[in-house]
Amino acid sequence: MRISVLLLLALLTQCSLPDTRNRISFTISFTKELSDQAQDGRLLLLLANNDKSEPRFQIGDGLNTQLVFGLDVEGMKPGDKITVSGEAFGFPIRNISDIPKGDYYVQALINRYETFNLKTGHTVKLPPDQGEGQQWNRKPGNFYSTPVKVSIDPQSSQAVDLVMDQKIPPVEEPKDTKYVKHIKIQSKMLSEFWGRPMFLGAHVLVPEGFDEHPEAHYPLMIYHGHFPSDFGGFSTEPPPADMDTTDYSSRFGIYGYNKIQKQEAYNFYQQWTSKNFPRFLVVEIQHANPYYDDSYAVNSANLGPYGDAIMYELLPEIEKKFRGIGQGWARFTYGGSTGGWEALAVQMFYPDEFNGCFAACPDPIDFRAYCLVDIYKQNNAYWYESDFKKLPIPSHRNYLGQIQSTMQESNYYELALGTKSRSGQQWDIWEAVYSPQGDDGYPKRIFNKETGDIDPEVAAYWREHYDLRHILERDWKTLGPKLQGKIHIYCGDMDNYYLNNAVYLMEDFLKKTNNPFYAGEVDYGDRAEHCWNGDHENPNYISRLRYNTMYLPRILKRIEQSAPRGADMKSWRY
Length: 574
Fold this sequence. Notes:
By secondary structure, this protein is α+β, with helices and mostly antiparallel strands. The protein contains 14 helices and 25 strands. It folds into three domains: 149 residues, Sandwich (Immunoglobulin-like); 222 residues, Rossmann fold; 96 residues, no CATH class. Strands 2, 3, 5, 6, 7, 8, 9 and 11 form an eight-stranded antiparallel sheet that branches. The radius of gyration is 26 Å and the shape is globular.
């Protein structure tokens, strides 16, 4: 009896406690002036505790990120008020009810989806690129609201109405100049896969004397990387002498980096036009797609035949229009990070079509080191295995090893931005490129996005199709003779994303190759962070700006050693 009375008192006490959970609610709508059509997409509620810039520009997975909450919407009509509640997935705060007391600038945005009827028979809803390179916060056509200042108090009930009445304007197409040209084609292969017209583009840096030497044909270098709005790092004008140098680069810890970049761009122009500089074409490809700012330049179950489309549709058009030599001995590829993986991958998957790759800080090239996760042996991508501890696996560090984010945090950030691999971010695009297609038409998850549990069947698919070290080792008997002397890999040993771990594993294999020996190069930068590209003489913030001249001596030597008899070695050396 005594126990029952005490229990009743305890229950009554609990019932009488005030509800201290945040009772704020947000409703989001859009005006008919933006569109009279129903919208599908990812609806985002964005909050920032400062007005340094709009909240939509302050979202990331690092220490300085502000708040984002997302939910999928289908058939949202003009004037419909969508309530953002606990069902919305938030980052870095998981639930909207846990927003702490304070003043916030609040904004709404919808990343608009369109319907694609794929060749595979699936129907998917995805955000098409609109010329901006898959940036949800800058994508032309996306609706958004003007930020409003709101005081949030968990002790009081509040209702905030956000009306999206603005639309991000179209991107202006870059214009041709004397040295930088642009090309865009509709891809038959990709259009067939996606069920609508799909395009590939490129920015082409043509050599000095291109118009004056119509008889010349040129070697071609593909500079792989993320979506380029125009050809970068090249300027015919020096920076103004009085250019402001108070800007600070937190990444490199220096002031005036904007002027340094402009000076390097002008220095490149001076080299490019100098008398004895070798004449060739440099190409930056635009292959943004509904999942990311580029396709990884390979064929994929979810993205379609981007590798073949680039190799057999786009490059022939470039070489025809700009007088490329058009033979494998005269093509080279290089790049860093995503571009580093792509450079190595296209060299491997099209071994006769390229004469050398220079892969700097490549994305994971051995999935036993998928950053800090072994997808074949580990059960979970978020937590180290332990009987009693729960230790998170990091995803980003600085050169001192200080952690900026964890695997779970980086993937929760993506999950707030989009479900079904639609965030447009790094982990989702690896999944979209490497995974088989699921029954619903979207990529199969390599691991559960909420729990981190790894799917061994998907991992096995990744291994056979995109684990570059495994593929090299598996197929060395046939690939080795085609790749001898062509593989060059560089990485800092304090890469921010732990990419050096996979490079170590690749090097272990390459050093043991025989019949033939790989005869290439693997090199590491001491204490160097992400994007180290093999330069031991200059700091990373300088060498990362010199990709287009960095590997030239080795490229020219390779051409001299390997060009077939009768090859054009003279027309481009004026």
